[in-house]
Amino acid sequence: MSGVIVSMRRTLLSCTSLVRNSLLGGALAALLPAEPADAADLVDTLSILLDFNRQELAVLATALALLGFSVMAAILLMRTRVRTAKNEAALLERIRELQLQTDRFGALLFAEPQILISWPAGDDRAQISGDISMVLPRDSSPQRVLAFGTWLPPDPALQMDHAVDGLRERGDGFQLTLTTANGRTLEAIGRAIGGQAIVRIRELSGLRRDLAETHLRYQALSDETEMLRGFAAAAPWPIWAKGENGALTFANPAYVRATEATSIADAQHRKLELLDSADRTAMERSLKDSAQFTSRLPIVIGGERRMYDVRSVNVGQGSVGVAIDASEADALSAALVRMAEAHRRTLDQLSSGVAVFDGQRRLAFYNDSYRRLWDLDRNFLDAHPDDSSVLDQLRAARKLQEQPDFRAWKAKLHEAYRAVEAAKDTWYLPDGRALSVVTTPNPEGGVTYLFDDVTESLELARRFDGMIRVQRETLDSLAEGVAVFGSNGKAQLFNPAFLRMWKLSNDAMREEPHIQTVEGWCHQLFDDPVVWRQIREAITSIENRVDVPIKLERKDGSVLDGMIRPLHDGATMLTFLDITDTENVERALRERNEALEAADQMKVDFVHHVSYELRSPLTTIIGFAHFLSDPSTGPLTPKQAEYLDYVTKSTNALLALTNNILDLATIDAGAMKLELGPVDVSKTIELAAEGIQDRLATDRIRLKVEIAPDVGSFIGDEKRVVQVLYNLLANAVGFSPQDSTVGISARRTERSVVFIVTDSGPGIPADMKDRVFNWFESRSQGSRHRGAGLGLSLVRSFVELHGGKVQVDSAVGKGTVVTCDFPTDQAAHRDAAE
């Protein structure tokens, strides 16, 4: 304003300069103040001018015109300057306000420790501000904040990376609660604002943590509420809640169905109740007095009356309740009560004393036999005394056996309350009675005692044991084998003689084996199925139980005379008496008699055969020998060579026959001794085959030899083995047709070496099989070479001297197979023979 006034003043001064020389101009200049302060001074000045002389009016008018123009221009200029000044002042004021607001917001923003991370749109460079010491050391680079894995565990770091990527790429906001590696709890909030992605990280502490925890608790409570509502909706039992005034505030579908309502609102509107008025009154009274109510009540649902366990409790300002169907449990409980009563009535009829003590060791039940057994007062028992009191009273009445330490004995007896299995004991009472005591722990706790008077039983057992001991001693002293089998076929009794006879184990027989099992054990000595079937049928039969005598000739040569005798109790007794010696004497006498008769006949046959067989070779030998021995004969002619051949054959036959006769005589006299040594099987067969080469060539017979690769050698008399094989081959060649094949094979078994000689001759008739090994048993039919009948006899004798055996398998028209089995262990054979 002062500027405007100054401007007007300057205008007036310029006007007055025109009339400076006039009086008006001088007066005006004198009147105008040098520095007018305001418009009021200007008005006062103008008023003074009006008082000038009218003569100078014209001059003054002109001056005033100029003055008005100047005033108007000054006013316009003044307004423009005032407006500009006001705008400038307003702008400066706004700037100052914005600066203050910025400072205030900055102070508010960083009043607590936090980090701000912003990414401008289209720019991957992040601007980071705030206190990075929240997550990193103070000297760390702010950009390290973006490496979340340096200050967060792996899972939260990965979650933060995904959240930031979603914010920058799609503008997805997020809010995360993170726990750093050093245990600090942080809150990370991401938002897209003004084209920028901004992430704010701050520590949750104080009120914020409380709010977060409150939120979590609220969420958990909400989830729990939803879960409980879901459970209540799915539960088959009626569940309800009532307010303080008793009005229904919640009900599940089961409650709605039970009250035959259409919905919860319908049940609330119609005030439908599950219980009748009397039960509701009782429940309300109980809730008021003790804050809870539990009872088993009848409820009619769907026209059916069933029992329900109803439970209700006060919760907050109201109450909640549930009704669980207990009809089946109620029926089972009633049935259990009836069953218990039936058991009690049954136990009362037993002769055994029964006493049941509960988990508190108090008498819960006893029967009349228990009371009579101990002669106890009924009033005392009905008062449910504890176990110790009963025992103390029995001891005071001297009804229990004396114990050195009664307290320790009673404590040991009471261990049954902690046991898992029943225990049995025998009490010998002072009055001479013996009681069998069984203590059985009950599943629900407590113990059941069973008392039985076994005095008479023990006496009978003692007598029976005495009789059994006498019987056992009698049986054990018998030389006759005795075994008793029950009606079930199992062995009940046996003596040592029976075990020795059949080589049985005492422990195995004590297991009460069945007769079929015993039969299997005895097969090593006797395996006749007919006799064993007879024994089994006699033991297990019910009818036709009579004595059956049996006689057994076993594999070891022993003979047993037995008897199957049925007993009155359904059992069967087997008795065996070894009569081997008697049988051997009888057999020896019979065999000796037969041997004497055969010897007489043998002598006749021997003389006959010897006189016939020896006469012709000797005559030939003598005649041709004289003829050849005469020096005058000179060189041999072809005819002489033929004669010489006859002499040689006859001499060999005579020598072989003589040797065979001598060998048989030696064997028969028991003077033959084997010269044992290693016998090479291949060499032995080769030596035996050499003796029949001329006969093989003459009769055009092929010899087929088969020797197993592993046959090796065995211990025996090589000379006698060669003699055995030679006789077998000679016999086979003699009975084989021309252009046929004779075979010899050798193989090794576990305990022997087996030689097999086969031919394709006419075979041996069945009536001759048992006689082919007899002395001088010769068959010329079917053979091209008549023999003395001693070859096969020597074969059997030599093989048996080695401890082996000979077997002949033959059929008429199909050839003959002779098998000789030589044992490889001659030491075992000698021991057995001795």
TrEMBL record:
Catalytic activity: ATP + protein L-histidine = ADP + protein N-phospho-L-histidine
EC number(s) on file: 2.7.13.3
InterPro entries the UniProt entry points to: HATPase_C_sf, HATPase_dom, His_kinase_dom, HisK_dim/P_dom, HisK_dim/P_sf, PAS, PAS-like_dom_sf, Sig_transdc_His_kin-like_C
Keyword Transmembrane: yes
Molecular functions (GO terms): histidine phosphotransfer kinase activity; phosphorelay sensor kinase activity
Chain ranges of the Histidine kinase domain: 609-826
Pfam families named among the record's database cross-references: HATPase_c, HisKA, PAS_7
This protein's UniProt keywords: Kinase, Membrane, Phosphoprotein, Transferase, Transmembrane, Transmembrane helix
Gene Ontology CC, one term: plasma membrane
Domain of life: Bacteria
Transmembrane segments: 58-78
SUPFAM superfamilies xrefs: ATPase domain of HSP90 chaperone/DNA topoisomerase II/histidine kinase (SSF55874), Homodimeric domain of signal transducing histidine kinase (SSF47384), PYP-like sensor domain (PAS domain) (SSF55785)
Protein name per Swiss-Prot or TrEMBL: histidine kinase
Native organism taxonomy: Bacteria, Pseudomonadati, Pseudomonadota, Alphaproteobacteria, Hyphomicrobiales
